[in-house]
């Protein structure tokens, strides 16, 4: 429990990124359980690259080191992606990234041998087995645990913005679900996942963890899987809202937006300002609206229940953050947010192609191509 309780303070707002990538059979366009082979081959080629097994044997996770800027993190991921592609070509598989696979049968997917994952399946059964989903996790360093929950609560007001921009999982089990991010709806079915419970202080959080430990929950699951959570071991706030982006260009934009938001709220807290927050029921409604409608969502933007187009609010927020992005060295990456708005998020591209061709395999091909070509 000490790793969860003791916050390892970060003197600077450093950055770390975790990107989940699936492996695809080029003939069937279905997922293939070759992650262990990929990790073994990569470890012999690039021992400097941190590549981790994930929940399913069809997935690898690229993890950056501790970075100081978004371009530094993106450069590390770009180098890793080049090496991954070389290994994938040798293995006869394709690389792919999205919130969920549009037609793969979850019942046929093999779970990794990692003990926390098998324990989650044993505990959650039907719902745990359905976690055929992929995400992007962004860590930002925080200098003191007293800031953590005020900043997380402020970030929860930006949940729909991050989700709408990243949403890329309209297809599930061969069907168009009608959602921009079906991944979001699936993941919250796990008992330790979803929106956090509105903690206000670090002591409230540690008392919660103590109770979860005493009740046996943490023994079963290893940790709590909230959409945004503290990572005490690394001294960070970990933002886990986004669907896995199909390309590095959009990943860079999402990472820049996340980094800027955390630093913006951190500085506001330091200046004695009251950070924004919404009632828990508004947070949950905004989450659902973004998952359902993506960029077409109208969201609740105040405690007085005022609403605004999520696209208009994203543009407003980017305008506020632009000077800070220049200071943090990620102005060019943040500007790509406008490009996502103008060209359409991943769910829209997937849905439009499916409506045109009627074949989800074409959507998988599109996503594989975006992964290789969509560079900063």
From TrEMBL:
Belongs to the glutamate--cysteine ligase type 2 family. YbdK subfamily. It comes from the Bacteria. Gene3D superfamilies: 3.30.590.20. ATP-dependent carboxylate-amine ligase which exhibits weak glutamate--cysteine ligase activity. This is Putative glutamate--cysteine ligase 2. It comes from Corynebacterium meridianum. NCBIfam families: gshA_cyan_rel, PRK13517.1-2, PRK13517.1-4. Keywords: ATP-binding, Ligase, Nucleotide-binding. It catalyses: L-cysteine + L-glutamate + ATP = gamma-L-glutamyl-L-cysteine + ADP + phosphate + H(+). One of its GO terms (biological process) is modified amino acid biosynthetic process. Its EC number is 6.3.2.2. GO terms for molecular function: ATP binding; glutamate-cysteine ligase activity. It is an enzyme of class 6 (ligase). InterPro entries: GCL_type2/YbdK_subfam, GCS2, Gln_synth/guanido_kin_cat_dom, YbdK. It holds the Pfam family GCS2.
